[in-house]
Amino acid sequence: MGTDFVFDLNGFDRDLDETLKKGRIAFRGKYKEELNALSGLSKDEIDSISPGITDLQTYDELIALVKAASRVNLEQSELKKRIINMGEIAVTIAGKIPSLAKILI
User: Fold this and answer.
1) I want to staple 26 with a disulfide (CB 3.0 to 4.6 A). Which of 31, 67, 83, 94 is the partner?
2) Has residue 70 been placed in a domain?
3) What is the pLDDT of residues 5-56, one digit of tens each?
């Protein structure tokens, strides 16, 4: 017999609350303008880089990175390094945001 999966709704709620709290802090942090600009990119703008799932995944990961950086006031040089380490698609997406493009120079 297989093991039944038991969904922990309370754990889910705790995780969600923590994620939302971190998001609120990030949108008030050092890179709030960059987050707003990234969030405003359309699917068409992202697909223009390289259509498919990869660019959307990278976009999501880039937003997660910038949120975390904003929340902890990460230095620009460290943010630049981490964006570059994410690869060409992340650099291209970040380059669509003028203030992030400046960091990447």
Assistant:
1) 67
2) yes
3) 777 888 999 999 999 999 999 999 999 999 999 999 998 888 888 777 778 8
Is residue 15 classed exposed, middle or buried when 0-12, 13-18 and 19+ CB atoms within 10 A define those classes? exposed
Which tokens hold the place of 16?
A: 């969600």
Task: Give the torsion through C-alpha atoms of 105, 34, 57, 41, to 10 deg.
Answer: -110
The number of distinct structural domains making up the chain is 1
Neighbour-count burial of 22, counting CB atoms closer than 10 A to its CB (0-12 exposed, 13-18 middle, 19+ buried): middle
* Residue-range definition of the domain harbouring residue 40: 31-104
Query: Is residue 50 included in any domain, yes or no?
Result: yes
Whether residue 72 is contained in a domain is answered as yes
Q: What angle do CA 82, 92, 58 make, to 5 degrees?
A: 60
Over residues 44-72, the pLDDT tens digits come to 888 888 777 778 899 999 999 999 999 99
**In which element (H, E) is residue 66 found?**
helix 53-72
What is the reported pTM?
Answer: 0.84
